[in-house]
Amino acid sequence: MDSTLKFQLRLTVAPELADVLRADASGAGHQELQRILHRHDASVKCQYDAFADYVSEAERVGIQQYPLYQWTRDTIENPQKKAKYLRSFTVYVKGEQIYEKHTADAMETELLKLVNEHGIQGVSKFDTDPANNPQPRQS
Questions:
Q1: Nearest CA-CA partner of 119 in 13, 8, 11, 10
Q2: Which of 35, 91, 98, 129 yields a CA-CA distance of 20 to 30 A from 135?
Q3: Strands (E), the chain
Q4: Closest Cα partner for 86 from 74, 97, 101, 76?
Q5: CA quadruple 57, 61, 65, 70: dihedral positive or negative?
Q6: What is the pLDDT of residues 18-64, one digit of tens each?
Q7: In terms of Cα–Cα distance, which of 88, 76, 85 is closest to 10?
Q8: Would you kindly state where each structural domain of the chain is located, as residue ranges?
Q9: Are 118 and 49 in contact, with CB atoms under 8 Å apart?
């Protein structure tokens, strides 16, 4: 495996827990999740909120500098996709949304133990390998 790859974890949660996590990124509404996040100097951010922030920034700065602007805007304006992304949370470690494999692996192991406990429905791990992720079209 390419040692330059970075990783990201995402949680899928029940709507009730999503509301709690959106209000407090430390995970305080779920004690065991909060312990894991604290142990790894981590927090969570709702993907819908991250998308909305991206759109707002693009509109403020100039959309030509934001290759995913239209896709992101369309996504947050679509009620079905909005519902999906309101339940999806990115795990940030030390303020970063991508991090080393050993960090992702350790957290993933701990977080997987919480699935189906108090609203945590899934844990996914993604890498930065372009072959595994769609890339924005170049204009």
A1: 13
A2: 91
A3: 7-13, 42-46, 88-93, 120-127
A4: 76
A5: positive
A6: 999 999 988 888 999 999 999 999 999 999 999 999 999 999 999 99
A7: 88
A8: 7-129
A9: no
pLDDT for 137 equals 43
pLDDT digits (tens, 9 = 90+) for 81-104: 999 999 999 999 999 999 999 999
Kindly state the tokens that stand for 73. 């805007």
The 10 Å CB-count burial string (b at 16+, else e) for 58-95 is: beeeeeeebeebeebbebbeeeeeeeebbbbbbbbbee
Residue type for position 51: F
Contact 137, 71 (CB under 8 A): no
Distance of CA 117 to the CA centre of its chain: 19
Does the pTM surpass 0.85? The reply is: yes
Work out the pLDDT band at 6, boundaries 50, 70, 90.
very high
Q: Is 31 exposed, middle or buried (0-12, 13-18, 19+ CB in 10 A)?
A: exposed
